[in-house]
């Protein structure tokens, strides 16, 4: 049986990422009680006719239109159907699971007002790995993604179980469930809030953490092939700059390169190395510091209520509070920050790749080809890396500043948190591909050194690990197949950034 995560208090981004990858989720007794209490408050609001946005009013610019009690169920259903406007290819299974996990977590804070059975149906789908098809495009915030999940709960839409596509009704029937008849406020609670952005942000963090560890490893291998200063990452001079990330990267590089015969042999041949080698602690470290700040923001978001309106008080004294907690400004800014940090790590990796393949600076055979001229070696691999870096530069433009006006001027400030998280994931994917190229190029460079010298213990072990799966390149096969093999090797490494 796989990992089971119990939802009692707020989930962390690590837990969301684990659920996305396949861990099961369990609602604790206290979580169910919080959901039930919030539902009783909504029922009291309905009974007393207290005005509440999306409970007994329309939504968006229709917020002042009063909805009679007999039409409140229809309002909830109509919100799901009318908000299901997403287009384009669906999210992947892992991404969709992340969104669902964050959505369930948001409901269990106890301020949304859905019924327990509604949350339990979401949970049943997640744990059975029956995943709604969520169109990836068309959201300025969250509505269309979340509505695609809500469709399945009412027997519409589509879902996947493995490779099998099911209608919403068939997906529920597979679990022995009938489509929900949504009650007052449930339609709105199912489509608003920031779970879409939060779930995707958690995945971006998990993938980034793993790749930042690989970036340090790739830099160490390249530095050993090209570097000259054995003590460039010494603890004392690095400590002069205050940065937890820099300190961690410096410590990691010292460990990767400890007692390297190659570096001992080239020590003192230059006054200082080029920045793509010398500044690895500063650049990778700054990116790690940005990562830490973003991780804190995502965890705060997971601990926050992002439903509008929020219900509070008690069934005897019900309260409903219209606010703007569903606006994902913090997440949009955080994901834009992470995107730039990841793009920076990718950019310096490409510069190191160029130094490895460029005979004008490497001292190695041109483009790491054994018989350059007949063979092109890694020449075009560097082109690919340069293209991906350029793509990252375009993707790193801030989504949070895109703005826009919707719903007849009622929603006239948009922060685009979900698109910010989505494009951050694209940049992370590009970083993985660029690092795969650098790792393969560095492995090839070892074999073309003019003098046979021993490697550091850890770089030697990583070189052997790469070569156990991917032989040296001799223009004898499509190179992009090697990139994919290297990416699979990287993904098989332990989680939490440990290599």
TrEMBL record:
<protein>
    <submittedName>
        <fullName>Histidine ammonia-lyase</fullName>
        <ecNumber>4.3.1.3</ecNumber>
    </submittedName>
</protein>
<dbReference type="InterPro" id="IPR024083">
    <property type="entry name" value="Fumarase/histidase_N"/>
</dbReference>
<dbReference type="Pfam" id="PF00221">
    <property type="entry name" value="Lyase_aromatic"/>
</dbReference>
<dbReference type="InterPro" id="IPR001106">
    <property type="entry name" value="Aromatic_Lyase"/>
</dbReference>
<dbReference type="GO" id="GO:0004397">
    <property type="term" value="F:histidine ammonia-lyase activity"/>
</dbReference>
<dbReference type="InterPro" id="IPR008948">
    <property type="entry name" value="L-Aspartase-like"/>
</dbReference>
<keyword id="KW-0456">Lyase</keyword>
